[in-house]
Design a protein that fits this description.
It comes from Eubacterium limosum. It holds the Pfam family Uma2. With 161 residues, the protein is of the alpha+beta class. It has one domain (21-155): tt1808, chain A. Helix content is 20%, strand content 36%. It contains 2 helices and 13 strands. A 6-stranded mixed beta sheet has the order 3-6-8-9-10-11, sandwiched between helices. A 3-stranded mixed beta sheet has the order 5-4-7, covered by helices on one side. It has a two-stranded antiparallel sheet with strand order 1-2. It starts with a strand and ends in a 9-residue tail after the last strand. The relative contact order is 0.15.
């Protein structure tokens, strides 16, 4: 395996994806910066591209918010993130929109954010409430599991990459 790709293990199949491009990385950075102050000093912490094991599968969410210190090993987090975030790219759309949506829900992820660079929207699936919300560039995302976590989407999507 090489450092130019990300690898995930889903249903006993190794999925390989190229490293994200500039726009993807810009959104990832902006979202990480927006999350950091909210979680500073709390048990829950956001991580970028950390391996997460869910049953036999290994995922690498773009961002995961992880709240149980007992579930960390040297290489990964052993259990469901409280929040999993995936930024769509042409090569990952099907996996992110269908496979991961189902796997994350079944494994106990509380909230799944799907970020679309193309439409500049974020879809939030709050599984335990059975709610789906779509936020546009002019709106502020409100987490369904962290009451005070609010992020203006205008802070997330760069004007230019």
């Amino acid at each position: 395996m090489d450092e130019h790709h990300l690898y995930e293990l889903i249903d006993d199949m190794v999925l390989m994806a190229p490293r994200p491009g500039v726009l993807h990385q810009s959104i990832l950075f902006n979202l990480s910066v927006a999350l950091a102050p909210f979680f500073k000093g709390k048990t829950c912490r956001p991580f970028s591209e950390l391996e997460v094991r869910l049953n036999k599968d290994i995922f690498v969410p773009d961002i995961s918010v992880l709240c149980d210190p007992e579930k960390f090993s040297d290489q990964r987090y052993e259990g469901a993130p409280d929040i999993a975030v995936e930024i769509l790219s042409p090569g990952s759309m099907r996996t992110d929109l269908f496979t991961k949506l189902n796997k994350y829900q079944l494994a106990g992820v509380q909230e799944y954010w799907i970020v679309s660079p193309k439409s500049k929207t974020i879809i939030v699936h709050t599984f335990w409430k059975r709610e789906v919300s779509e936020y546009t560039l002019e709106e502020t995302l409100a987490s369904g599991i962290f009451e005070d976590l609010k992020i203006p989407l205008s802070d997330i999507f760069p004007k230019t990459p």
